[in-house]
Amino acid sequence: MPRQFTKISLHEMDERVQHLAEKVYASALKEEDTKNTLSMFTVPEDCPIGLHQAKERELRKEIEEEKSEKSVKRSVNSNVVQDVEPIKWAMSVISPLLTPSSPTGPLPINIPEFQRVTISGDYCAGITVEDYEQAAKTLLTALFIREKYSRLAYHRFPRTTAKFLRSANNEIWSEEEEVLPDMCPAPREGEDPYSMEDLPQNLNYSLKMKDGIIYVYDNEDTLKQDQPRSLPYPDLETFAIEMSHVLAMIADGPTKTYCHRRLNFLMSKFHLHEMLNEMAELKELKSVPHRDFYNVRKVDTHIHAAACMNQKHLLKFIKDTYKTEADRVVLEKGGKKFTLKQVFEDLKMDPYDLTVDSLDVHAGRQTFHRFDKFNSKYNPVGASELREIYIKSDNYINGEYFARLIKEVAHDLEESKYQHAEPRLSIYGRAPEEWDILLKCNLTYQFKIKLCNYFSKALDAFLQVTGFDSVDDESKHSDHIFTYKSPKPEEWTMEENPPYTYYLFHMYANIMVLNNLRKERGLNTFQFRPHCGEAGSITHLVSAFLTADNISHGLNLKKSPVLQYLYYLAQVPNLCVSLSTDDPLQFHYTKEALMEEYAIAAQLWKLSTCDVCEIARNSVLQSGLSHQEKKHFLGENYLQDGPEGNDIRRTNVAQIRMAYRHETLCNELKNNFFI
User: Fold this and answer.
1) Residue 431: its pLDDT value, please?
2) Parallel/antiparallel/unpaired status of strands 527-528 and 531-532
């Protein structure tokens, strides 16, 4: 695929698609009851379409079609007959993925025999043949759109789905065309993590922002001639049109019905798989030497640095600093400087008397669905002064206490060995100096090295981060409907904040340009991993489907069976589930917050050992760990699909489970794309 952003003009947009997209936007804008537009996955199976009369019409139409000879000829037969041998059935499902040189006989690696759930007879989607074909066509279009956006930004796109998309176009997928993020490996012991020796030469590019997107020029002359470097530069109109295709799908009745039933089928199929094969999976795991749940790698992919410590840890740190540094100046307020002792005197409290209860940083029942109250829990004892002193990088002591707290948490992780974390540091975007402040905090107190005089170079070294997030209260309502007519950033003069989708597009667009430029220079690339679907409109999840490598939360996927099914087919890390802690300060009690999450989930959902190990494996796959580290933690062939990509000696995930996942995804793709 050429590394250019293919643009679409408005006149190419289908009127029906535009109408359905506007319907979804209107329902979100007016905050209406959207159950008729966005049916819940949990509603009874017989009512996803909506109105009773519409359902009767569709049923009559389906009965007439079934009677017709034409419908019989065009009906889609199941790929499986019950008396077919299981291995032959598995090969029939994954055959579109085999290259011409691949074997067509037995499966390529040894998989213990297990019981497969198969379906026989004419395929029935619960909708007419025409509606089924329309649903399959729109699903295919949506996956092609996500693949385009993922590849251009160096985000991940699953091999299995990519191979089926190539087959749908009568093409053959090759490994050479795969695009993957390029992550920095962790520094080895004794290695300077911020060494600037290998940084490429500064070529003094010229930059210019147009319509909210940075354009890169070789020099001032090419800037004057408006000849930017050949990089993919997205445009708002194309994004709005392609997003409308997905919006139209989630409002289309037959597509909702089809996706809803496929999700119900998948859930029931997995329950049957568990019932039939749980003991066989456990037998596999028992035969693996040395490895168990405790010593497989787990990554906390969503944890905020400002809340990465538990409440007891923060309380102890406050008491320790007061005991040893009470006379240290730590705060400047209103032109006056305060020592730590004076701060507590003004608050009329003695740190010795503090408890975790009086610290009051734990999230209680009253904070749920209240972003304002949740944010206030970042203030120990309700005092913003203590938040500034202890968990901010921009303060009088240059974030020293904050950095020391993070180091202590990192030390605990090092001791546990098999747990990793990706802390998220906050940049508010109010001033460019925020990067320098954050950099100063990290370089000075995290690694005890002398500050470089040239912050721009030091910042390049600091940018070994794995990606960017976008965080705020998603439930905040915006009266602006995002369209191609939305004002450009330089034209946005309204007092209200732009909508969520507006932010996501512009963040994605600039990360895409930056990633392509950095890839040219041999530097690491970044993932876009926003908070999404925690609250607010379903349109947030639609925009993230196009722009995000993976998302955090995604709770609102339950409102749309179409989106939920799309996220499954594209294996977006969210429906490729992992567990994370988010805010140990607010939610957890021990220094092993991630293990608390696994323990609670295992008890609540009755998860097996294979289940929790599969979740742990997912966390490594979707993390920002480098290719070399993932090979070490998951196996040399982790990029392969199914059992071939699983080294049970390292992941403790049964090959039966991996085969089931792979064959099930292939079967869904095969049904949808008539392959």
Assistant:
1) 79
2) unpaired
Residue 553 backbone dihedrals phi, psi, to 5 degrees: 85, -95
Positions marked active-site:
553
- What is the pLDDT, as a whole number, of residue 45? 38
Per the CB < 8 A criterion, the answer to whether 306 and 375 are in contact is no
pLDDT of 29 reads 61
Predicted pLDDT at 195: 72
Tokens of 608: 């097996």
CA neighbours within 13 Å on the CB side: how many for 592?
13
Q: Which two tokens stand for residue 245?
A: 């295709």
Residue 419, SS3 per DSSP: strand
Q: What is the pTM of this model?
A: 0.86
Q: In this structure, are residues 382 and 344 in contact, taking their beta carbons and an 8 Å threshold? A: no
Instruction: Name the token pair of 423.
Output: 């802390």
Tokens of 518: 């950095």
3-state secondary structure (DSSP) of residue 439: helix
Per the DSSP assignment, residues forming a β-bridge with 331 are 338
By three-state DSSP, how is residue 174 classified? coil
Place of tokens 């408890």: 355
Q: For residues 252 and 50, is the Cβ–Cβ distance under 8 A?
A: no
Q: Is the dihedral of CA 550, 551, 553, 556 positive or negative?
A: negative
> Mean pLDDT, consecutive 10-residue segments, the chain of 675 residues?
70 70 68 40 39 54 52 40 51 58 47 83 71 90 95 94 92 90 83 75 90 93 93 91 91 90 93 95 95 96 93 95 95 93 94 92 74 77 92 90 93 91 86 78 54 45 79 79 85 87 94 93 92 90 95 92 95 89 93 95 95 97 94 95 94 96 93 66
Give the DSSP per-residue string, 252-304: -HHHHHHHHHHHHHHHHHHHHHHHHHHHHHHHHHHTSSS--GGGS-EEEEEEE
With contact defined as beta carbons under 8 Å apart, do 377 and 362 qualify?
A: yes
Nearest of 568, 525, 526 to residue 554 by alpha carbon: 568
Contacts 24+ apart (CB under 8 A), 5-11: 5/152, 5/232, 5/233, 5/234, 5/235, 5/238, 5/512, 6/148, 6/238, 7/235, 7/237, 7/238, 8/237, 8/238, 8/241, 8/242, 9/237, 10/237, 10/241, 10/484
Taking the CA of residue 292 as centre, how many other CA atoms within 13 Å lie in the half-sphere pointing to its CB? 4
What is the spatial distance between Cα 378 and Cα 384, in angstroms, rounded to a whole number?
Answer: 8
pLDDT, position 109: 62
- What are the tokens at 178? 């795969």
pLDDT of residue 675: 46
What pLDDT shows up at residue 482? Answer: 83
Looking at residue 232, what DSSP letter applies?
Answer: -
Query: Can you tell me the distance from the alpha carbon of 338 to that of 342, in angstroms, rounded to the nearest whole number?
Result: 6
Q: What token pair was written down for 470?
A: 């976008």
Longest distance between any two alpha carbons in the chain, whole Å: 90
Containing 244, the helix (H) or strand (E) segment is: helix 236-250
| 655-673 helix and 561-569 helix, angle to the nearest 10 degrees | 120
Query: Tokens for 265?
Result: 């089928």
| Residue owning tokens 């009127």 | 15
Q: Please tell me whether residue 77 adopts helix, strand or coil conformation.
A: strand
pLDDT of residue 125: 62
